[in-house]
Write a structure and sequence with these properties.
By secondary structure, the protein is mainly beta. About 10% of the residues lie in helices and about 35% in strands. It contains 5 helices and 24 strands. The strands form 6 sheets. It has a 6-stranded mixed beta sheet with strand order 16-17-24-23-19-20, with no helix packed on it. A 5-stranded mixed beta sheet has the order 3-2-12-7-8. The chain is globular. The mean pLDDT is about 95.
């Protein structure tokens, strides 16, 4: 993977940024992210799919292969879940050197309400055989990555595919899924980073060996060097973000805040159990204070946090926020503390510079 050694973004990165908008961080004020503000990542092209002609095929190591129309999927038991969807590359732009890909800062996230039918029920109807070790999901998008022509494909271990919350989703915030988010059907794997939630889903295949495709083993791995195979990216790591306070300058985005008590708010989440603690800092992470943390509105949603900050006087301040999961994992202070060269799962604390006047 080529590495950018300078602060300037490459032409390729700018093109990817224009194709793949992030969530404006002021959208953190919404418990459910409006569809038009939710981040988007499209690896290849957005397929043009006729819902009436779209079938989902379930095959491989199953007792009863299935072909399900969208009407049949919609007729199955339905579940609606708020789910934090986060790109595994969120935070990549903070790395130095920086892997060249979608140049996310902190905005590759959103929390939508997804409606669909549980994957577990479909797999039960198909009858996954004992020799199956993974379930492979294939989307309708096709292209080249790492020099290999491929469909976008990802797999899950069988036990992960059978967990509560894994959905075959056909609606987002109560409406048909928009084309860029996977219309007419996508997988939603609520505890994992977004790369597992395959869009434009067309085939589910039970397989006897671990999948070795590009998106599974070459990409989406934590690596200390370019030479090692790395550790797969799976569940979302604990993270907190703040809705930028005050008002911004147009070009620099420097925030301007009045010298008066200010309520700082944001959201926190984790893919491996709930967030237990959120801390706020107004001095670049040298000292921390506990923020107020609201209860979750759903197992896979994000929690609102808030902090009443009293600026000590005029000047520039670096505001930071960090989350700690119930299991004890806490966000690292800086991206340099995150060991990986792949640019995935970067969850270092957010930093927002504000000018108090």
């Amino acid at each position: 993977m080529p590495i950018a050694d300078t602060a300037e973004f490459t032409g390729e990165e700018v093109r990817l940024a224009l194709r793949n908008p992030g969530m404006p961080l002021e959208a953190l004020r919404h418990a459910v992210t409006p569809v038009g503000m939710h981040y988007v990542l499209v690896h290849f092209d957005v397929p043009d799919i006729d819902e009436a002609a779209h079938d989902l095929v379930v095959d491989g190591l199953v007792e009863r292969p299935l072909t399900l129309t969208m009407a049949e999927l919609r007729a199955r038991p339905a579940v609606t879940l708020p789910v934090v969807m986060e790109c595994a590359g969120s935070g990549r732009a903070h790395l130095a050197p920086r892997p060249v890909s979608a140049p996310w800062h902190d905005e590759a996230v959103g929390c939508a309400e997804w409606t669909g039918t549980p994957l577990r029920g479909v797999l039960a109807d198909a009858g996954v055989r004992d020799e199956a070790v993974e379930i492979l999901f294939t989307g309708a998008d096709r292209g080249f990555d790492q020099g290999v022509e491929q469909d976008y494909e990802r797999s899950l271990p069988v036990d992960e595919a059978l967990l509560d919350g894994v959905l075959l989703a056909y609606a987002m915030n109560g409406q048909p899924i928009p084309p860029s988010h996977g219309f007419p059907l996508r997988l939603v794997v609520p505890e994992w980073y977004g790369m597992a939630s395959v869009k434009w889903l067309r085939t589910i295949t039970a397989i006897a060996e671990p999948f070795r495709g590009v998106q599974q083993t070459v990409l989406y791995t934590y690596r200390r060097s370019e030479d090692e195979p790395g550790t797969p990216v799976t569940r979302k790591r604990p993270r907190a973000l703040m809705a930028p306070p005050g008002i911004p300058e147009f070009l620099s985005r420097l925030r301007h805040v009045r010298s008066e008590p200010t309520r700082i708010t944001g959201r926190a989440w984790s893919g491996d159990g709930p967030v237990a603690r959120v801390e706020f800092s107004a001095d670049g992470g040298r000292t921390w204070a506990d923020a107020e943390l609201d209860a979750l509105v759903g197992r896979y949603a994000w929690a609102r946090w808030s902090f009443r900050w009293e600026p000590p006087g005029p000047g520039d301040y670096e505001l930071c926020v960090r989350a700690t999961a119930a299991g004890g994992e806490r966000q690292p202070l800086r991206s340099e503390e995150v060991w990986n060269r792949g640019g995935y799962g970067i969850n270092a604390v957010q930093r927002v510079v504000v000018r108090v006047t």
